Amino acid sequence: MPQDLAVEVLKDPSHGFTGVPPQRGTPPHGPRPQEPAELLVGLYLSSGNTLTMFACAPDAPSAPGVPRWHVTDLEVSADELRERADRLRSRWHELLVYFVGEGDPRTGARVGARPFADTADLSGLAGVAESVTAALAEEGFDLLDVMLHGAGYDLGKFREFLLGALGGKDPLRVSFLSDLHLPWPMLAVDPAACATPWEAFLGHRHQVEQTATGYSWDHAPVDHRNLATTSLNKDDSLDSVGRAGEVHELLEKRSRLIVRTRGSDLLKALAGPVLNEDVMYFWCHGRMVSHGPSTPCLAIRLSDDEHIDGPVVSRKRRPFLHEPSARFKPFVLLNACGTARAAAPGRLKHLGQELIGMGAEGVLAPQIDMPQDFATEYAYAFLDLYLTGQHTAGEITRTLVRRFATEFHNPLALAYSLHCGINSRLSLAS
After folding, report:
1. H/E element holding 269?
2. β-pairing, 274-275 with 207-211?
3. What pLDDT, on the 0 to 100 scale, is given for residue 9?
4. How far is CA 83 from CA 143, 147, 210, 212, 338, in A?
5. How many domains does the chain have?
6. Does residue 30 form part of some domain?
7. CB 352 within 8 A of CB 286
8. Which of 48, 57, 180, 218 counts the highest number of beta carbons within 10 A?
């Protein structure tokens, strides 16, 4: 007659068959990389044009009497914050991008040259670059300080929590869900409390993204592939700039590459239900285009005269939005001047916003006019890491900020802003 035997599990090396037991010669649990904790920050317009801000650290242990969600009304207006953000971008242009040098025979700098824009490696100007970086950190802190300034009790407690989290010793993955698309990586905590000005910038301390609301949808699946599919959407006149040719070669060697030089070809591809590309790289010019009395809309142009902006992308892809038989899930590196900037609520959405709305996993783009040589250095470094499939976009952006600071004394990597995609990682499985 069968009997039930009492069993007591003393060791469970596979954790209930959910993991691989330690192999011979490895530590019992093995050193495992730990992902940075997450911080969620919201900033939205509520009734009466009041700005309300909330923050939550879901990974942090809860303490008695301390709310998990921190919420407060801000005392600053949305208009002032937008103007302050524009001022911060202008200061980067004045102090760094468009700064005109007086010439220095010791360094070979010409009279009237733009020393910080003419080369990506600022090691020869390290002393001056460090001074400029310190000034930009002060400007970034000023914007954050103005945002959180006020005498209200709740605002004071909120400010204490948020600045404590952002200025803490541990790196975080920070997602800003905001009606105001601010240049978050260029913002800074108090530089006086940091060992160096570099460490004050949010983009140096943390992985940072501007995120969005909305549920993801099931795109048409693809088979497992041996190589990623990428596209290079470019202006031919920029082929000889910096490392542009090396970026082209990198994509050609490491992926199935589609090259487009005409806006009409790009629009034709966008007009089909399935755009099966893992990475879309844009190497072209961006500029604001006026449509009558309305606010100007940001547009890009390849080698022809076709302007590609948010409304035209929406028009081409709107018929396929949320359709399970359609697919549009690329990670987009939009390497054109100012293309990370977003339109205010109620305005025509800029290109990056529409690409996210149509299904893109993330858009990485500069907040300012980016010097071309540096743009090619950044693109090569980012794509070289992303195409391995071993790193997320958030990890890479933070790594590159630190790398360019250490090796080149150049803060321009902080001006690249991630719209969604902080956890995006290249995967060749559907």
Report:
1. helix 263-270
2. unpaired
3. 44
4. 10, 12, 18, 22, 16
5. 2
6. no
7. no
8. 57
| Position 31 in a domain | no
Range of the domain at 266: 228-419
Model pTM score: 0.88
Give the other-Cβ count within 10 Å of 386's Cβ.
25
What per-residue confidence (pLDDT) applies to 288? 75
Q: What φ, ψ does residue 259 adopt, rounded to 5°?
A: -110, 130
DSSP state of 257: E
Tokens at 429, concatenated: 């499985």
Residue pair 357/305 in contact (Cβ under 8 Å)? The answer is no
Torsion of CA 110, 113, 119, 122, to 10 degrees: 80
Domain identity same for 276 and 393: yes
Q: How many CB atoms lie within 10 A of CB 323?
A: 14
Instruction: From 39, 45, 55, 51, select the one nearest 160 (Cα to Cα).
Output: 55
* Domain assignment present for 29: no
Which pLDDT does position 15 carry in this prediction?
A: 42
- The confidence score (pLDDT) of residue 430 equals 62
20 φ, ψ (degrees, to nearest 5): -90, 130
Helix (H, G, I), strand (E, B) or coil at 156: helix
Residue finishing a domain among 186, 211, 236: 211
Q: Which parts of the chain register pLDDT below 50? A: 5-32
Mode of pairing for the β-strands spanning 37-45 and 51-56: antiparallel
Residues 205 and 239 occupy one common structural domain: no
